[in-house]
Write a structure and sequence with these properties.
With 252 residues, the chain is α+β, with helices and mostly antiparallel strands. The protein is 15% helix and 33% strand. It is built from 5 helices and 18 strands. Strands 2-3-4-11-10-7 form a 6-stranded antiparallel barrel. The protein has a 6-stranded antiparallel β-sheet with strand order 12-16-17-18-15-14. A two-stranded antiparallel sheet has the order 1-13. The protein is globular.
Length: 252
């Protein structure tokens, strides 16, 4: 899928050019209880230059996010140039903040963006106080029956513009739309600039699991039109992409 690869490549090289991706009505609202799981595990990834992404704690000191959030001018920035904030609300961190001491990315993420995931190692184990989430798969049978959410920090959203960057979440049930030949998950939940790295959350019987991370907007085979995105989908990198790396880092 040449258009898919091109779109993800542009995302990696020029993340600031990615516009808000809204499919139908925007159902997102402020998360009023970010101190409770699953939302307490979702935090703001801040670069040294103020660029914002979203991340989710998947271990005591491990944060899953998008690899392109760590790139500037086609190069990975030093880990020390990144910080992670929990309970970020109205433009300020009301929870804990930790510096990043290292991160791991798939080498394939740098040239083409297909494996667009990164795992940050925090200086402080903030997951001990705010909690962290398990990771897992989204099976074909769960695609349309599981309750799906994509919480994230959209810097283009009216709440962010008027009151400061805050965690948003879709109120209406989201849907998985399928996977492509590379395993990327398509979904219809609204996102925007700053939502990159936001977890695709699955809820079954009260248990929330991270099954993917949102990285781009796309429609299979066709670039999304600017003013009419009703037929487009958002894209998430699946758990299978980072499973081995997360297992290795967790055991270190």
């Amino acid at each position: 899928m040449i258009p898919s690869m091109l779109k993800l490549l542009l995302l990696v090289l020029f993340p600031s050019m990615v516009s808000a991706m809204i499919i139908g009505a925007d159902s997102r609202a402020l998360v009023n209880t970010p101190k409770a799981l699953p939302y307490s595990a979702v935090g703001l990834v801040e670069g040294f230059d103020g660029q914002v992404c979203t991340g989710v704690l998947v271990g005591r000191d491990l944060v899953l996010t998008a690899a392109h959030c760590l790139m500037r001018a086609q190069e990975l920035i030093p880990a020390t140039h990144v910080r992670f904030h929990t309970h970020y609300l109205y433009g300020a961190s009301a929870g804990e903040m930790s510096e990043v001491v290292s991160f791991e990315v798939d080498p394939a993420a740098v040239p083409n963006g297909i494996q667009d995931w990164a795992i940050l190692r925090l200086k402080k184990p903030v997951g001990d106080s705010v909690g962290f989430l398990p990771t897992g798969t989204l099976s074909a049978t769960e695609m349309h029956k599981a309750i799906l959410r994509v919480p994230g920090y959209d810097v283009t959203h009216p709440i962010a513009k008027n009151y400061g960057i805050s965690l948003l979440n879709n109120r209406t049930r989201g849907h998985g739309k399928g996977v492509d030949a590379q395993g990327l998950i398509f979904h219809d939940m609204p996102t925007g600039r700053g939502s990159s790295g936001g977890p695709l959350l699955k809820e079954i019987d009260g248990t929330w699991t991270v099954v993917g991370i949102t990285v781009a907007e796309i429609r299979p085979g066709v670039q999304c039109p600017v003013f009419n995105k009703s037929n487009c989908n958002n894209v998430a990198v699946p758990e299978s992409s980072w499973r081995e790396a997360l297992t290795s880092l967790t055991n270190q």
